[in-house]
Amino acid sequence: MVKDIVLAGLLHDVGKFAERGSPEEFSFSEAEAARFQWAHAAATDKFLRTRIQWDGSRQPPWFNYAAMHHNPSDNSPMEWIIAEADRLSSGMERASYAADEREGGKQIFKTPLKPVTEFVALKEGCEAIEGQYYLPLRTLQPDELNAFPRKMPENLNLSDDYQALFRQFDAEFEKLLRHDIDQKTDTLYFLLQKFWWAVPSTTRKRDFPDISLFEHAKTTAALASCLYVFHQTDNTLNQVEKIKNRAQKKFLLFSGDLGGIQNFIYQISSKGAYSLLKGRSFYIQILSDLAAEHFTDALGLTRVNIIYSSGGKFYLLLPNTPQTIETIAHVSQTVNQDLFDKFNGAIHLRNAFIDISGEDLMLKNGRLWQKWEAVSRGLHRQAQQPFVALLQNSEEYEKNFGPGKGDLKTCDACHGEAEESELKTIDNVQLCPVCFELMEMGKRLKKARYLVLTRETRAESKFDLFMGKRIYLREALTIDWLQKLKSGDQIFQFNNTCYDALFENEWFKNRLPKERLGAADLARFQLGFKHYGGTRRLDATFDEIAARGETGFEKLGVLRMDVDNLGLIFSRGLRHYRVKRASGDGNGHFYSLARLTTLSGQLSLFFSGYLNQLIADEEEARCAIVYAGGDDLFIVGAWDVVTEKALEIRKKFAAFTCHNLAFTMSGGLTITGGKFPIYKSAEYAGQAEEAAKKFSANGQNKNAFTAFGLPLNWNEWFRLKDLKEQILKNIQKADGRYDRALINHLWRIVEEYQKRYLELQRQSFNAAQIKKLARHERWMWRMVYDLTRFKERNRPLSPLIDELMELLAGDAREKSGDRPFIELLPTLTQWVDYLTR
Fold first, then answer.
1. Contacts of 483 by beta carbon, 8 Å cutoff, 6+ apart
2. Mind listing the pLDDT tens digit for each residue in 326-369?
3. Which residues 6+ apart lie within 8 Å of 551 measured at CB?
4. Could you tell me if 669 and 645 are in contact, meaning their C-beta atoms sit under 8 angstroms apart?
5. Residue 771: enclosing H or E segment and its boundaries?
6. Average of per-residue pLDDT across 468-486
């Protein structure tokens, strides 16, 4: 029955999409729509009856649960469960829930989906805005054309876009879901995400269209499944008034967080480092998803109850029953035992949950933001005692914490200990079981196009298996291999939502046109997609990659970046939403589950999906993503490529977030030799990133980038990039080499300034006085003299030298609050120096 409820919840508003995409087929008279109350509900009924094949003479009852969500019968509790879930979901998304659910007439095709990222604000009292951007009505693809917000045109008409999108949706629905849809809830979920991610759930003028039809459908299905389980357990399933009671705490907000993942990913040496880094970072990402699914599976729920899962953390919406709480405790212990067996305590799962009511979820005077913060505090408390449950288990205590057996040896990669009999030697490198298996996984990622999860209890390696699910990475899906799949197995495409290549597979071609895809054809496996940051890979050692730069300075660049103030964005960003609020609404006015999932999904789309597209094919051999997901990234490559890529990522992130100043990034770059231990490089890059996080200038904190030893804000970096390119253009000779004379002059200016600065430091001046005094010391007139003489001997360089002299001698920057250019000159000079060696 839970699956029926989920199907009804996911498809209850399919009529809205059908009406907009095929108005000739899905138009109804008032009399025809009266039974359902509104025309789009009648369209839902027609879509289900005409697009889904069912057994027997009677249609599945869940068709009515979905179609009657605006006019539920008091004799049908199931209809009321979908109706109440829809109203709770709408109440979370809109300023007020009204019975009038008519679409917006001509407004339908003028109302696109507004990006949540444009309206997030970290401070109260920010000016309300109408919004300048919208999301294109296209299928979900992680590229700039399809996923980035666009400027709103004056006369937008989405009619043709709706019709084209609906035709595509209709065709894929026919192929994948016409038969046995009750066995394919995951396939349906991903199909709706693909086609509905940019479809607004409402086009009424009084509503704000920033929630997609997919997020509304997903949230409705999650709430409905919780309501069903709660009332079934409470023996009140047939009491409609109980179902409508919003004061009762019927739900649990649950969060799981994998602890220790940063140290686990980075604490390795340079031996076999790239494949091992890839394997470790991928395994962490997939562990988060698998752990979330394991909880929902154990509770008899589905994917819709996973609010989001990314970056080692996941949130679930669960029914508040004693059985749920008992299952949470049991599953948490089994998951932690499995992780302990695999990683000997390096990774652990902590969790927290809190009960919530329907009233808590409503926008008007809702308390979801308080509940969310309470769960976060609960996770923090658990971080202080990660193994308490395992310590309390006396039967497993000796196994988990007792002395090891045999002679312990050190792994050359992670420097952990393992029994000598467990070590494996590859190219004279001794690896513990963890490093060996995850290195092999990293190698398989090189060509993997599919992730396949099967329900098995045995595998070749314990790392291929997690809580009853076997992990396969496949480059292709052969006919023989597909025939082994069973009901419930899952196929995910990496970073591609288009199934055309899969449909061209002979196995699919022989079955898709048939009248029925039944169990005999083993066609009930789930089909979906995963955005994974790092499907491209380097094909050489770090030392060889360092030599692939375009300069004679053969070094490796290691880059780490993440979003600033992410906790504040989630805790405050939706409370201070920059949309005009209805009178009387409280701080939680726009704080809803759907907006939280939309926001996290958008960030994940950028990091896990789009960044793969940002590294162009010609750069692939010189730069690659080791990890990108959630809100952070780790990239390695030739230092010059990685430096430029950092600036490009920041620029694209600003465009992706509608140039909203609430969304900033900080990062750190370290430059090392190719043979330098990668874990130390990652540590140094992390320290550089931390220096950027501590950066403050002109009242602005963070939003900076540290490279060549100095943190600068991004505007300063973009200015230096322009100057760097001017200098290179002017000093490059006909044979392609560079005349370094100007660089030597710039170094002398830097050294003269720094020498005087240190002299003043040794005197009794404070920092502000030192900067002021150093600003007009002898380095200034020496700079003027030196560069003037140099200009006389190098007339073609006169415009460039004049610009540099003006920047160094002028005070326009200081008057505007910017730092004196002399403080930026060391970074510019170092950058150009490295590029011209």
1. 507, 522
2. 999 999 999 998 888 888 888 899 999 999 999 998 876 678 88
3. 640, 834, 835, 836, 837
4. no
5. helix 767-775
6. 83
Contact 665, 564 (CB under 8 A): yes
C-alpha span between 432 and 340 (Å, rounded): 15
Question: What residues pair up with 530 in beta bridges, in sequence order?
Answer: 494
Question: Could you tell me if residue 37 is left (phi over 0), alpha (psi between -120 and 50 degrees) or otherwise beta?
Answer: left
Q: How many CA atoms lie within 13 A of 343 on its CB side?
A: 24
Q: Are 581 and 359 in contact (CB under 8 A)?
A: no
For residue 309, give the nearest of 547, 528, 600 by alpha carbon: 600
Whole-structure pTM value = 0.91
* CA distance between the termini of the chain: 69
Q: Are strands 704-707 and 665-672 parallel, antiparallel or unpaired?
A: parallel
Q: Is 705 helix (H, G, I), strand (E, B) or coil?
A: strand
| Strands 348-356 vs 465-466: parallel, antiparallel or unpaired | unpaired
How many CA atoms does the CB half-sphere of 267 hold within 13 Å? 12
> For 156-205, where are the alpha helices, taking DSSP H only?
159-177, 185-196
CB contact at 8 A, 250 and 358: yes
Count the residues in the chain: 837
Most confident of 133-137, 397-401, 525-529: 133-137
pLDDT tens-digit map of 223-277: 999 999 999 999 999 999 999 999 999 999 999 999 888 888 877 766 667 778 8
C-alpha closest to that of 22 among 237, 166, 174 = 166
Alpha helices (H) along 445-564:
479-482, 500-503, 506-511, 542-546
Percent helix, percent strand, percent coil in the chain, to nearest 5: 50, 15, 35
CA 671/CA 657 separation, integer angstroms = 29
Kindly state the DSSP code that residue 255 receives in the 8-state scheme.
E
In whole angstroms, give the CA distance from residue 211 to residue 115.
Answer: 8
Residue 46: left (phi > 0), alpha (psi -120 to 50), or beta? Answer: alpha
CA distances from 13 to 17, 40, 207, 597 (A): 7, 7, 17, 19
- Bridge partners, 251 (sequence order): 319, 356
Sequence-separated (6 or more) residues with CB below 8 Å from residue 36: 42, 44, 45, 67, 68, 70, 71
Which of 821, 816, 818, 719 shows the shortest CA–CA distance to 780?
Answer: 821
* Cα–Cα dist 536/623, whole Å: 9
- Say whether 309 sits in a helix, a strand or coil: strand
Q: Which two tokens stand for residue 183?
A: 């066995």
Phi, psi of 548 (to 5 degrees): -90, 5
